[in-house]
Write a structure and sequence with these properties.
By secondary structure, this protein is mainly alpha-helical. It is about 75% helix and about 0% strand. Helix 4 runs antiparallel to helix 12, helix 6 packs antiparallel against helix 12 and helix 14 packs across helix 15.
Length: about 350
């Protein structure tokens, strides 16, 4: 073991670590520029565009949650739509039946989904790879049907769903509902993004990534495999639940057929397009699943699905590692331009 370590040049180690750190998040300057653009953008666009960007942030949170699970701990899930639905219905029921403030529904929805995800993680411990994907697929398929049960129809609205009241801006601020909800969503997104980044850099995050890279080696090093796998499921489900609650408030409506397996596939697609394991790419992937279908429909309404498939194929073929690969190429070109 010492022979292998000695054969590696000392200068190579810091280089590899620096690259890994840079590739996991955006640089400070880039982050500040993006934040400044996000803050002033609503002042120059229509409410419909503000709503669309709000949905990008919401789906970005859900994709980020999937990134923590898959990119962080190496567990595949095709059932994120189920946790998204639980969070959405938790917020809708609390707002419409319990008269709870919309802001308070977010942590409640997150805790509920964390519990569901943590409990689901226990039977998932015996599964891995494609079998785990199939188990989560079953969860995604079953959830819309469970929400239609007559036993809970009084609370969920059954097939017809529930209408959610969109909140007004507080303190009499002279801004529209869409603009206020955008800034509220942006604040929640920043908090979740910073917390997720710190999580992956923490001891727990390193333990999850050790399990992702080599489960046997992680166990030999004393990592509690069962704990961190179920914890990853719980955290991912909790963040997805917050995204679902925000989605319910933004769309002002929840219904079982809004949270089908198609949504789970869309979130998984967003993770792949954004770059697996790269947290900033979650929002690039979310922008893809929100805007590209609209672009495809603008090209041809009758063949929108075909055009979407072609555009997706082109993106995957040209940049197989998603937005992460684009960011690395852009950084490389920028560094070359700076050199005299």
């Amino acid at each position: 073991m010492s022979t292998v370590q000695e054969s590696v040049p000392a200068a190579a180690v810091p280089t590899v670590n620096a690259t890994a750190r840079k590739s996991s998040t955006l640089g400070r300057t880039t982050s500040l520029i993006v934040l400044a653009v996000m803050l002033i953008m609503p002042l120059f666009v229509r409410n419909f565009i503000i709503f669309q960007v709000t949905m990008v942030l919401i789906y970005g949170i859900a994709v980020l949650a999937l990134n923590i699970l898959t990119g962080g701990s190496g567990q595949f899930s095709l059932g994120q739509s189920a946790f998204f639905a639980i969070g959405a219905y938790a917020a809708a029921i609390l707002i419409e039946h319990g008269n709870v403030n919309y802001a308070l529904t977010l942590p409640i929805a997150g805790v509920i989904c964390f519990i569901f995800g943590f409990l689901f993680g226990f039977p998932a411990l015996r599964l891995s790879g494609i079998y785990l994907a199939l188990a989560t697929y079953a969860l995604a398929v079953a959830m819309p049907q469970l929400l239609k049960l007559g036993v809970i129809e009084h609370w969920t609205g059954g097939v017809q769903g529930l209408v959610v009241t969109k909140p007004d801006a507080p303190f009499g601020l002279p801004i529209s509902q869409d603009m206020w909800l955008y800034y509220f969503t942006l604040a929640v997104t920043l908090a979740i993004y910073i917390a997720s980044t710190n999580l992956l850099k923490s001891r727990s995050g390193r333990a999850m990534m050790a399990i992702r890279d080599n489960e046997i080696a992680a166990s030999a090093m004393g990592v509690d495999i069962s704990l961190y796998k179920t914890l990853a499921f719980g955290i991912s489900a909790g963040i997805t639940g917050v995204a679902g609650a925000l989605g319910a408030i933004a769309v002002q409506f929840v219904a079982p057929d809004s949270y089908t397996f198609t949504l789970a596939i869309a979130l998984f697609l967003g993770m792949v397009v954004g770059g697996v394991g790269w947290l900033p790419g979650s929002f690039a992937g979310a922008a893809f699943i929100v805007f590209v279908p609209n672009i495809a429909e603008g090209i041809s309404k009758g063949l929108s699905g075909a055009f979407f498939g072609v555009l997706l194929f082109i993106v995957i073929y040209l940049v197989p590692h998603g937005a992460r690969q684009v960011a690395i190429l852009a950084e490389s070109l920028f560094n070359k331009m700076k050199k005299p």
